[in-house]
Design a protein that fits this description.
Layout lengths: L18 H7 L5 H9 L10 E5 L3 E2 H7 L4 H11 L8 E2 L1 H10 L2 E5 L1
Parallel strand pairs: 1-4
Antiparallel strand pairs: 2-3
Helix pairs in contact: 3-4
């Protein structure tokens, strides 16, 4: 039986003895692509969608419906801020204002 897939260079291109040679064959990234990525940052300030009148404490589910997002996204954003809450737990105004700002809303106390 001939098991050619057991041979060392079965999946490598001709002239390559290991994966380091394959990496060396790939072209260098051009400076134009790098400059385009630097001059056009992907993170831009969100546009203002409006104002939210929120009470001092609001549940995560209610906040998610106000900012028109799924609750798991709002929970993930809260975790990034250091607040750990479930869908039915209430969150303070400070966290609400940060989440609202992320999605382009201005939060005001009701």
């Amino acid at each position: 039986m001939n098991f050619e897939h057991f041979e060392r260079g079965y999946l490598l291109p001709k002239g390559c003895k290991d994966l380091v040679d394959v990496i060396k064959l790939q072209p260098e990234p051009s400076a134009k692509i790098f400059l385009k990525a630097v001059s056009n940052p992907s993170k831009q300030a969100p546009s203002s969608n409006g104002e939210l009148l929120v009470p001092e404490h609001i549940t995560v589910g209610e906040l998610a419906s106000l900012v028109k997002q799924r609750p798991f996204k709002v929970i993930a954003d809260l975790m990034q801020l250091g607040f750990f809450a479930t869908v039915n737990q209430s969150v303070g105004f400070e966290a609400v204002s940060k989440i609202a700002r992320k999605y382009g809303y201005a939060a005001k106390r009701a």
